[in-house]
Specification:
Elements lengths: L9 H8 L10 E2 L6 E2 L10 E2 L2 E2 L6
Antiparallel strand pairs: 1-2, 3-4
Length: 59
Amino acid sequence: MALPSKRLSKSRMRSRAAHHALSKKVLSSCPNCSARKMPHLACPECGAVMKKPAKATKK
């Protein structure tokens, strides 16, 4: 099996790991009810997709 021939320094190892940071979620507002939702997905509050009702809501 291949083993590393030289030990990696802390700065070299941390600079490689710097790209693994998580990004913030992008939220937009629903045009139907103004609730916060993920773009291109149905609204969790009213169920609208592109101003059209997509799921039956409970009454």
